[in-house]
Write a structure and sequence with these properties.
The protein contains five helices and no strands. By secondary structure, the chain is mainly α.
Length: 86
């Protein structure tokens, strides 16, 4: 997926998700290995409610690939939405 598509796919219907996913895409995505980048793309195919519960530590995905990318995102965001200072 090209960068522009990733950006738009990372923009969600919930501000809390935007505040986690967009900084991750901006600052971390390019530094993770290609397999994890594909996991991120797979993650973006999931429903907002699932993403919300996973990324904010309310539950964990059952899919091992999704578990891995969720943990990577959590590790880089401390599970908290980050406000953009742009």
């Amino acid at each position: 997926m090209n960068r522009n598509r990733l950006f738009w796919a990372s923009r969600r219907g919930m501000l809390e998700l935007d505040l986690v996913l967009l900084p991750f895409l901006d600052k971390v995505y390019d530094t993770i290995d290609p397999a994890d980048q594909q996991r991120y793309e797979k993650l973006l195919e999931q429903e907002d409610q699932d993403l919300f519960t996973w990324l904010l530590h309310r539950s964990n995905p059952t899919d091992p690939d999704l578990q891995r990318i969720v943990q990577i995102i959590r590790d880089h965001t401390n599970g908290q939405p980050r406000h953009s200072h742009r």
